[in-house]
Structure prediction request, 221 residues.
Amino acid sequence: AQRVTQPEKLLSVFKGAPVELKCNYSYSGSPELFWYVQYSRQRLQLLLRHISRESIKGFTADLNKGETSFHLKKPFAQEEDSAMYYCARLSGGYNKLIFGAGTRLAVHP
Amino acid sequence: DVKVTQSSRYLVKRTGEKVFLECVQDMDHENMFWYRQDPGLGLRLIYFSYDVKMKEKGDIPEGYSVSREKKERFSLILESASTNQTSMYLCASSLRHPYEQYFGPGTRLTVT
Prediction:
């Protein structure tokens, strides 16, 4: 079964510290991977997708096929980055997304 | 601006009741999805639909059914609510390729 694993339930850092939210996926050819984010009292929304190779709000994520990982990184965390982050991949049928369990990022002043 | 709305933000129902959760999107999206969101489990897909009157089971369809009579509306039905269906329910929609899904605000359902 295709899986997305986010090993950390909570990541707690201080403002200005680097952040890395881990995401691993079960191997399956050329996956399409995404990061979604949910800020407090807001809707879940797309943060970035690996295919666009862009940086959004200072976050980047690189697909590492050798390690089957798609970790989300930011060099200097801000308090407004505090949120729930979900890693997701397209399923083999390309009709649906499979989400990880999520990691809560808490950035302290 | 894509708008996905859900009929209720909070709902309290009794065990055994039939429950309807409604979702409406205004962007003419083909795909619509229902998830439940539980702490430590993330989002789990219940059902999805890629066209009017079409539906496919997701990962946890047991105890649920869906209806899509119009393109903009996707309903989730709990035939006989049980306490283990207490959860946050999220609706989403997307264009043909579902890489960007637009989510509704969620309905927090409590079954007592």
